Amino acid sequence: MSSDVLVVDDSAAIRKILQRVLRQTGMVIDSIHEAGDGNEALELLAQHTVRLVLTDINMPNMDGLQLLAAIKESVQWRRIRW
Length: 82
What we know:
Largest sheet: 3 strands, parallel
Radius of gyration: 12 Å
Shape: globular
Order of helices and strands: EHEHEH
């Protein structure tokens, strides 16, 4: 089963490293989306069907814990792994 992944981190370098690691795992991944904070992540979640979210905790605007709370509270996104 293939899936989309969302990587959320305010560091572009960390996002690229995580993308490389994900590709090396052998997981079947259709797309890896990137967001620089929780607000961007929510915008991407509204546009794409994502099965896995990897998020940093300490980020500007909306941190990772706030993002995970928003995902957990949403009926639409509740099935996403994090």
